[in-house]
Fold these 4 entries.
Entry 1:
Amino acid sequence: MTKFNRRQFMVLGAAGTGAALVSSSWLRSDIFSQPAPQSAVNSVLLYQSSDGLLELNLEASESLVNLANKQAYLLTYNGQIPAPRLEAKPGDLVRIHFANNLEQPTNIHYHGLHIPIAGNADNVFLHINPGEKITYEFQLLPDHPSGTFWYHPHLHGLVAEQLFGGLAGLFIVRGKIDEIPEIQTAQEEFLVLQDFSPDERGKRATSAHMSLMMGREGNIITVNGQINPNIFLPANGMLRLRILNASPSRFYRLALENHLFYQIAIDGHSLSEPIEVNELLLTPGQRADVLVKGDRELGQYRLLNLPYDRGSMGIMGGGMMRDRNRNNQDQPIVLATVNYKSAVEFLALPTRLASISALPESQTVRSFELNHGMNPTVGMAFLINGEPYNGARLDTEVKLNTVEDWQIANTGVMDHPFHIHGNAFQVISRNGTSESLLTWRDTILVKRGETVRIRIPFRDFEGLTVYHCHVLDHEDLGMMGNLMIKA
């Protein structure tokens, strides 16, 4: 088992637009994947595949939900915060009958899944109007990685607003890592981290201009829609936490009092062996799977969100102005409480997880610069290579079944997590220093002043998709590019 301290390792953190909308093929719910009961901390509905098929109805709507012991009007999938958890296996067919009952157009992005990027699959250019229905359908490859993925809206210009409203859910692919005996016997819990800012009437508050520039953060932080829920850890046993940062802008720097994390996966991809860390940094969109040993004195231990400064929008970059709603820069915030329960037989950590092969060196190197500036039509904009997003412009074209290196430099005043749709990558270097840990990721933190080099294989699926900053207000305000993968 590899040991890293927190300085050495933290989680680093249009084609298909003519796809048909359908309403006549709405099927009976009794033949769909049926929801299963969950533990108290995971009270959301769970839909699991059966006989190679995951099929369900999914409705986006505004719902009145209980949030921090008050009623709030939030955006939900099937009336739930967070949304129902979906579980499938490699090779399964997924069929989701989606109805948009919001007052805005929307669509769904299956974050981290390696599936088709055109048609009615992971197509971010679909525009599903209020009152319309569509059937999303795709098949997971037989060798699809098993791991923690998720789904959320991705209609440009509305992404941050709709995610901040509550639209987010886990998509779990069950596979090889779940069959490792030490992991299979661990107690499994799912933690969806979200923040909200309802007003005194429970209505979703309109974000101020500076909040959008910084990336909005809410004054209520929830775990699975709850404030400080209880999580149970068997004494001598093992707790497996699957953690998702489903906030549009907030970074979570996680630590568990008097306990270490033994990380086993990043962004849905297994590590080669567990890594011992004392904290985790999860940027928006990132996921981490960790094991926690039940080897401390019986009692209660707080899961904390530690302070993190992700930068500021000073006066033209001078660093003097900060968003007052960003409330986790000065002191830890309690997210959940881990409670020891009855003892079990001692469980050991696994020693090996997955075999990871390094990608071959690339002959193609592209450079991307992340920064901000002014746009004549919208004012402040966030830029890639000096340009705000333009839906009609093709920014990058790559060939299918090739490998490229992308060098991403952040010359701005805020940290930016960089995400590519559809294809995971390996991190090669940071500021010219080779990466010591070989992993697969779909989102990488590029801190202000840093340059990160990643290596991407473009495999299996052609079509048009995007890459962007996953502080989603920055994406909506221009920090995104169109990517064409062409055979």
Entry 2:
Amino acid sequence: MTIFEKIADEVQKGNSQTVEELVKEALSTEVSVEGILNEGLVEGMNIVGEKFKNNECFIPEVLVSAKAMKLGLEILKPLLAETNVKPLGRVVIGTIQGDLHDIGKNIVSMLLQGAGFEVIDLGADVPIDRFVESAKNEKADLVGMSALLITTMVNMKEVIQGLKEAGLKDDVKVIVGGAPVTRDFAEKIGADGYAPDAASGVDVARKLLNL
């Protein structure tokens, strides 16, 4: 088993301390930082994401694996900046204004980050203007919105309208999801993509950005 495979395996098991030790060990042997990221951390989290999608693991396991992956990522971040390793894309994500539910959104954020995206998580109850401003300031490729309440879903349309008015809609793809959100609703408000569950979010993001 290679060092990358060991890292991926320990990410799946959620062993944060072992992941940290293996990443440092890998760096000491001067293997590629990009390899540690993509073949180790990202590969491990991708497998977790697939298992989650297939109901082979559940939210607690995803959270533990994501924590292990993030710990390894923190060690690599300064080196990734030096080597100009680019993320798959930049995603601004949040739960829409008026809605405080964030568990599903948090899982999507973790899985996206685990898949190699840079994620700017705005949190819950995010004002319409903040989505638009963040998309502009962060030069986002993708905006992700979540809602768990029927009463807050309408605000998703307002964000899309705001992106259009700011001249950003041609450059920024929009993906929506959440319990009451349907594919039909997503199409009606002009969203580019719809994720029926957290695990599908990564697949939809990849497809929208032609990855």
Entry 3:
Amino acid sequence: MQYDKIKKRPVQFLSITGLKIEDFNFLLPYFKAEWDEYNDHFTFTGKIRQRRTFTRKNTILPKIEDKLMFLLIYLKTNPLQEHHAASFGMTQSQANQLIHLLSSLLRKTLKNLGELPERNEHRVIHVLKSCDDLLIDGVERPIQRPQASDLQKACYSGKKNS
């Protein structure tokens, strides 16, 4: 799979990556800067680089566009690594290493852009005070039920009776 071929089909690109081509192109230079910074100082395996970096002819994903698309497809579709590796013509272990490396670089990129979800409750409260309208997309999270039966009743909604 190559970015140059898929970008000609915007609907398919959106469905496999979760981003429109314009959004992908916006994110790309920031991601490239993180990749270049990492690649200048470290090897693919994370060791400190001894020599200058260069792109080999037999590199699996030679272009930065292909690397970002590789990661976004993995994050959107959540396939088995073996299947994802076969789609891009590599081994599962290569895919695993690349996924972990690129994930950390994407996280840094999104953090620098200020696009990561907020984890600090005080910051969330501060932001909510400045909003007129609020739409919350919440998920149900399991809780540890207490041992005492009277306290268990307070935690039990009665809706999940099977």
Entry 4:
Amino acid sequence: MIKTILISSILFISLISNSLSAGSSDTGSKNTLYDKAVNLINIAKKMEEKGKSEKAKKRYQKAQKFLIKSNKEKPNKADTLNYLGFTTRKLGDFEGGEKYYLKGLEINPQHKGINEYLGELYVATNRIDLAKERLKVLKGCNCEEYGELKEVIEGTKKSKY
């Protein structure tokens, strides 16, 4: 009799717990503001490659709005600051983009994306010595960011920024 009550109780608790978790809003899906922004940025990059600059610009603007909200909700995330710098720069505000990148480097000085993009910004603003400093940070990473920035600095790859 005690075994039956114990088994019934365990089954009951298990069923309640499953139905409560089924109604949970956190399903583990990637629908955060940050994720939406990254998706828009990826779409905008592809549009730029196809020469659709105005459509890309609209995606960057929308992504930037999501990133600003995301940064307010969860401040001081290097990845968010990286993309805030990127979208700001893509929208023509190099000074604002640089501020986001530098703030991101305060959090994570080795961030590959920030170092690459900041280096590209320095090339675009004719500060090659600063771009080379970013390249030095990336040198040992064995990552594509190093190669991308190196090509931009050497002029073998045209920066779109």
